[in-house]
From TrEMBL:
GO terms for molecular function: ATP binding; protein kinase activity. Residues 230-325, 784-874 form the Ig-like domain. GO terms for biological process: cardiac muscle cell development; heart morphogenesis. ATP binds at residue 485. This is Myosin light chain kinase, smooth muscle-like.
Length: 892
């Protein structure tokens, strides 16, 4: 190592600190340590020891700092009398700005005992090197350098370099330093070395340690630039064995591991749900230079999710996502199975999937049955692949049964779900799907004598249509609940229309068609009192969570609609406004539906063409748009559209606006989208195809529809659960359209779909979270230079080459200066410095001569400190040796 001699310099810094105030001292107790604000801010330090404390009322610096009192300018009650007691070291503090939590101080420090100051997170450091002849200076070999980091917004100008006479060797070094400063525009009195990790040279501003000892004897005029590692390709850090999916059975140990190839030191962190994984007795992460492993013992459902390994080394950062799936048998199907389509010896069961599939797809369901009053359950099937099942065998008419369902995945079978309600198998009369409680239909005529309010109590609103509003009514006399459809009728035409609607309804006495109870004509209004249908609109009901949606349930609805429409057609009445909103459910618990809204219905008389320009764009038939005569099959087209939406959730002709929708209908081009095509049974597709025929004569009639195999023979239908998501969107769009906000709705839906897309790919949030993790990892990697392999003494023969080799670690990448007898070595033909990515550093001296003999020092420094290693080179002269050996004294 170099010899140390007396020092001649001291330094002072003018800088600005922002100090977070500690809690005020109470009764002389110790106040909280101030924390410096901002990243990595560790306080004013003096040889690694905090050298000052800031309390609300005063700032105290250590005893060897000059006493100084600083009055705050404007916030005397918050920070005042900043005492800097006792003083060997000149120090001047000036409070620039205070706030509740932050104190901004500019200060000038002139320690007399050498350059062992470390000021961390200094906002605007402009170290000023001043001449202080009496000061002593020592080389700092370990710990913090006399460093001022993170310079910015220089607030004072650098002083000129020292001019005091100094020993030749020392002068050589300092002169170089100052020349360097000057060349860089006198930004700061420190060597501003551009690090690959820092943006600006000023940011990385660093002062060298000044040695007053064994300074080089041959000062060079040009400054010697420190050696840096070569620019990295950026892909030297890699995660090798990328496993993207790990499945672990609940209760067992999960191990997520990745091999890492990088340049040590490495820092790694596992992140889950945007938060670093916290170690616990159950969870531990082990990272070496070649691998990072996350071990989770006794995994539970909550441990499942996406884990991201973030790795940082000096060359960069990488991350890898691994999905941990905790698998188990599924939980039981949610809720109890629902029973529908009850007949003498068959029924349809439907149920919801389990709330948790055990992390592995549910493959099948098993269904058991038991007769009420008996204990044993009988397996009906264990291979059902959908969430509904048509029980066709083994049920005795009149007997009472209960059903239960289990879900199975690759890892086992669930517990049984709740048992269904007990059901009595249908009697012969019950087999008629149109069987209803007997209704006393009455002939209704417009009542202009009574007022509806006199006879009915108006309750809540049930719905809203084009022509008015529908309210729940209670008949005062009987307490019976009805629905009142209030339509504005100011013109005679409106009253005539209302009268026509009532007259048509008088002919439509069928369990699948809403019937009219009474009708009132009041000034400006016509009120139709209708039977109350309690279950709400069909599509709303289908999307409700507790409702299974399959082809089989859809068939039940379609066959009822066909039955109602068939009856209408038999009465020579066309509805002309068949659409999902006009199909309502009888009750919340059964699957019976009714057709409502005969506001546009017309009686067709043979030979009298009826042309209409009415309806709802998405559902109207091509002949309506073409203003051609309508027929009974005009309704069948609309049923085709309803059925298409029912099974796919998509509206087959929907365009961006009504015009486009109508154009789509006229063109007659429609098809099933890929997804629907794959899901639906051929028979269902055929049914729709036969309804959506442009030529109205080619369409199925209601009667033919009821005989179509899809409707007639449910067994050939797909039992796959149909998605409700698209239907939800369809309903959302319809609602907005109703309120005239279709455009907005479309935009909103576009946003919705965008949002759902983005969940599949890493979001911006995730990215920013990763960034935070990487910043944290970079913080962790920070360390001063260390020589993991030191220089060794060498003896070489003159004319040969000498290699001094060492290995350097540190982050940010240390920069390297080599010295020979105290003087920095500049690379030349004879002096080569190799500094590799790995940290390996070699000085190669070719053609050595006795003049090269001496001490060589490798000095590595980064923003955290500096380290050195040295070794001696001895050079032998062969000829001299030989001469000595032969005793000839001759030269070779
Ligand atoms: P539009 O022509 O726009 O369909 P409209 O003015 O002809 O509307 P309806 O369709 O008859 O009115 O009724 C509007 C809404 O009121 C229905 O969609 C339904 O939600 C509700 N509604 C109508 N009739 C009944 C009823 N009998 N029982 C319960 N709710 C009903
Ligand atoms: Mg309606």
């Amino acid at each position: 190592m170099r010899q140390q001699t007396g020092a001649l310099y001291t330094m002072s810094y003018t800088s600005t600190l922002r100090i977070q105030l500690g809690k005020p001292t109470i009764n002389g107790s110790k106040g909280g340590q101030p924390k410096l604000s901002e990243n990595g801010c560790r306080g004013l330090q003096h040889r690694g020891v905090f050298c000052g404390s800031v309390q609300k009322s005063k700032m105290v610096l250590p005893e060897n700092w000059k006493s100084n009192t600083v009055k705050t300018a404007n916030e005397a009650e918050k920070v005042s009398d900043m005492k800097v007691p006792s003083a060997k070291v000149p120090c001047h503090l000036q409070v620039v700005k205070t706030s509740d939590k932050l104190l901004t101080v500019t200060f000038e420090l002139c320690p007399q005992n050498g350059g062992e100051l470390c000021v961390r997170k200094v906002k605007s450091p402009v170290p000023i090197l001043t001449h202080a002849p009496n000061a002593t200076r020592r080389l700092v070999r370990e710990g913090p350098l006399p460093t001022v980091q993170e310079a910015s917004q220089a607030e004072s100008c650098p002083s000129p370099p020292p001019t005091t006479p100094q020993p030749e060797k020392a002068k050589a070094v300092t002169t170089k330093v100052w020349e360097n400063r000057e060349r860089e525009g006198k930004r700061a009195s420190c060597i501003a070395l551009e690090s690959p990790h820092k943006k600006s040279s000023v940011d990385n501003c660093r002062s060298v340690s000044f040695s007053d000892e064994s300074a080089p004897s041959s000062p060079s005029k040009d400054p010697v630039s420190p050696k840096r590692k070569p620019q990295r390709s950026g892909d030297s850090l890699k995660i090798m064995n990328k496993v993207s999916q790990v499945e672990v059975k609940k209760g067992e140990q999960a191990e997520l591991s990745c091999s890492i190839q990088g340049t040590p030191p490495l820092a790694a962190s596992w992140v889950r749900n945007k938060k670093p994984v916290v170690e616990s007795p159950r969870i531990c992460a082990v990272t070496s230079e070649t691998e990072s492993r996350l071990l989770i013992r006794e995994v539970c459902e909550e441990d499942g999710g996406s884990y991201t390994l973030c790795v940082q080394d000096q060359t960069g950062s990488v991350q890898h996502h691994t999905r941990l799936t905790v698998v188990d048998h599924p939980s039981p199907p949610a809720g109890k199975p629902l029973i529908s389509g009850l007949q003498q010896s068959s029924l349809t069961l439907s149920w919801s999937g389990p709330s948790y599939d055990g992390g592995s797809a549910v493959l099948r369901y098993s269904i058991e049955v038991k007769q009420v009053g008996q204990d044993s359950w009988r397996l009906l099937t264990d291979t059902c692949t959908s969430t509904s099942y048509h029980v066709k065998e083994g049920l005795v008419p009149g007997e009472q049964y209960q059903f239960r369902v289990r879900a199975a995945n690759a890892y086992g079978v669930s517990e049984a779900a709740a048992e269904s309600d007990a059901v009595i198998m249908a009697s012969t009369r019950d087999e008629d799907p149109d069987f209803e409680e007997p209704v006393e239909y009455t002939e209704v005529s417009l009542n202009s004598k009574d007022r509806v309010d006199d006879l009915y109590v108006k309750l809540e609103k049930l719905g809203m249509g084009k022509f008015g509003q529908v309210y729940k009514l209670q008949e005062k006399a009987s307490g019976k609940i009805c629905a009142g459809k209030y339509s504005k009728a100011r013109l005679q035409k409106d009253i005539a229309n209302a009268r026509a609607e009532v007259e048509l309804m008088n002919k439509l006495h069928h369990p699948r068609l809403v019937h009219c109870v009474a009708a009132f004509q009041e000034p400006g209004w016509v009120i139709l009192v209708l039977e109350y249908i309690a279950g709400g609109e069909l599509f709303e009901r289908i999307v409700a969570d507790d409702f299974e949606h399959t082809e089989i349930t859809s068939i039940e609805y379609m066959s009822q609609i066909l039955s109602g429409v068939g009856y209408m057609h038999q009465q020579s009445i066309v509805h002309l406004d068949l659409k999902p909103e006009n199909i309502v459910c009888v009750s919340k618990v059964d699957t019976r539906v009714k057709i409502i809204d005969f506001g546009l219905a017309r009686k067709l008389v043979p030979g009298v063409p009826v042309k209409v320009l009415q309806g709802t764009a998405e559902f109207v038939a091509p002949e309506v748009i073409a203003f051609e005569p309508v027929g009974f099959t005009t309704d069948m087209w609309s049923l085709g559209v309803i059925c298409y939406i029912l099974l796919s959730g998509e509206s087959p002709f929907q365009g961006d606006n009504d015009m486009e929708t109508l154009r789509n209908i006229t063109s007659g081009n429609w098809e099933f989208d890929e997804e629907t095509d794959a899901v639906l049974s051929d028979s269902a597709k055929d049914f729709i195809r036969r309804l959506l025929q442009k030529n109205m004569k080619s369409r199925l009639t209601a009667e033919q529809g009821l005989k179509h195999p899809w409707i007639k023979d449910k067994a050939i239908s797909s039992t796959k659960t149909l998605s409700k998501e698209k239907m939800k969107k369809f309903l959302a769009r319809q609602k907005w359209q109703k309120t005239g906000k279709a455009v907005l709705a479309l935009k909103r839906m576009a946003m919705l779909s965008h949002r759902s897309d983005s969940t599949s790919s890493p979001s911006t949030d995730d990215d920013s979270e990763s960034q935070k993790v990487f910043s944290f990892l970079q913080e962790q990697l920070q360390r001063p230079p260390v020589f993991s392999s030191l220089l060794k003494d060498h003896t070489e023969v003159a004319g040969s080459s000498a290699r001094f080799h060492c290995h350097i670690e540190g982050f940010p990448d240390p920069e390297v200066l080599w010295f020979f007898s105290g003087s920095p070595i500049e690379e030349s033909k004879r002096f080569k410095i190799e500094y590799e990515d790995s940290g390996s550093c070699t000085l190669i001296i070719s053609d050595v001569s006795p003049a090269d003999a001496g001490e060589y020092v490798c000095q590595a420094s980064n923003s955290h400190g500096q380290a050195e290693t040295s070794a001696k080179l001895t050079v032998h002269c062969l000829r001299a040796k030989r001469s000595a050996r032969d005793g000839t004294g001759k030269t070779a």
